[in-house]
Design brief:
- The chain has 9 helices and 14 strands.
- It is of the alpha/beta class and 310 residues long.
- It folds into 2 domains: 2-109, Rossmann fold (3-Layer(aba) Sandwich), CATH 3.40.50.720; 113-306, 2-Layer Sandwich (Dihydrodipicolinate Reductase, domain 2).
- The chain has a 7-stranded mixed β-sheet with strand order 11-10-6-9-8-7-14, covered by helices on one side. Strands 2-1-3-4-5 form a 5-stranded parallel β-sheet, with helices on both faces. A two-stranded antiparallel sheet has the order 12-13.
- The chain has helices at 10-21, 44-49, 65-75, 89-102, 117-127, 154-171, 258-261, 263-274, 282-301; strands spanning 2-6, 27-32, 55-58, 79-82, 107-110, 134-142, 175-181, 197-203, 208-214, 222-229, 232-235, 243-246, 249-252, 305-306.
- The protein is 35% helix and 24% strand.
- 44% of the residues are buried.
- The structure holds (2R,3S,4s,5R,6S)-2,3,4,5,6-pentahydroxycyclohexanone.
- (2R,3S,4s,5R,6S)-2,3,4,5,6-pentahydroxycyclohexanone binds at residues 143, 158-159, 162, 258.
């Protein structure tokens, strides 16, 4: 598969490197970026139109995702779009409708945690009934820090959106109501940033998921997930590492960032995409955008917000 990559920032360059060196059956045919040296195209539309490009990875700024994904659909080319699928539920729904009109499932959304070995094991054991009917999910999403442009809404639309997708995927359940609460902000947070936030997701089947999103946690990149069922719990463990025991103390490293914590997930996600296997669909991207949009509304109003999908 000759892949074109739109965007040569952190994610675009990560995807291009993995496709070129670690994903079997794929090669990088072209890169499009307005400023990156060595990019074949400045404009993503030219890359999509290139007959040498069989499929496209969209890793440009989120505001450009809708136009590039729609252009890939028009060109009939499979597209892996980094999250979020679009910057609004309405825009994401336009992509869902365009794909349905085309009659071909060409869109995959880059919710890579679905390919993280730990989450994959957790879902397999949940589906096998090892803890009975799931009732609750407890999640933690802590970043060391974020860029200065990161605002309070992005904590939900860019960070907690992963837990929104993971909750839908693990529980096979739609989210019907969101409540977001914000305690006093951390002194580490940039002035004006409401950080941390606590997100409560209620599902159609009567489950409740709580997510602590804390992007100025300072100490590490710490991702946790525990599903509580009628017969027990399943808890995600960090990837295998070593514990140092010395001086009457024990230390185990925690990841510094998502690139490190989910390195395997990104590789597996690309390999599955090239092989035409699974991944989050356009509908999943739309549902996550709709829930994230409701979460922002709840943060602003201080009240629960219902989620009504098309
Ligand atoms: C970032 O955009 C990601 O997608 C990471 O997976 C997430 O952990 C981080 O909080 C986001 O800012």
């Amino acid at each position: 598969m000759n892949v074109g990559v739109i965007g040569a920032g952190l994610m675009g360059s990560t995807h291009a490197r993995l496709l070129a060196r670690e994903v079997s059956g794929a090669s990088v045919a072209a890169v499009a970026d307005p400023v990156a040296p060595g990019a074949v195209y400045a404009d993503g539309f030219d890359l999509i139109a290139d007959p040498a490009v069989d499929a496209v990875v969209v890793a440009s700024p989120a505001a450009t995702h809708e136009r590039y994904v729609l252009a890939c659909l028009e060109a009939g080319k499979p597209v892996l779009c980094e999250k979020p699928l679009a910057t609004s539920a309405a825009a994401a729904l336009r992509i869902v409708e365009a794909e349905r009109a085309l009659g071909r499932d060409l869109v995959t959304v880059g919710f890579m945690r679905r390919f993280d070995p730990g989450y994959v094991d957790l879902k397999a054991r949940l589906d096998a009934g090892e803890i009975g009917t799931p009732l609750l999910m407890h999640c933690v999403h802590r970043n060391v820090s974020v860029h200065d442009f990161f605002d309070s809404a992005m904590i939900l639309t860019d960070s907690a959106v992963h837990e929104i997708d993971v909750a839908r995927w693990l529980l096979e359940d739609e989210i019907t109501r969101v409540t977001v609460l914000a305690p006093r902000p951390s002194g580490r947070a940039r002035p004006g940033l409401r950080d941390p936030q606590l997100v409560l997701l209620e599902t159609a089947a009567g489950r409740i998921v709580d997510v602590e999103a804390f992007v100025s946690a300072g100490y590490a990149y710490d991702i946790r997930c525990e599903v509580v069922g009628e017969d027990g719990t399943l808890e995600l463990l960090a990837p295998a590492t070593v514990a140092l025991r010395t001086g009457l103390a024990e230390r185990a490293a925690i990841a510094a960032g998502f690139e490190q914590r989910f390195a395997a997930a990104y590789r597996h996600e690309l390999q599955a995409w090239v092989a035409g296997r699974g991944g989050a669909t356009a509908w999943d991207g739309y549902a996550a955008a709709a829930v994230a949009e409701a979460a922002v509304a709840s943060l602003e109003s201080g009240r629960p917000v219902d989620v009504r999908l098309a």
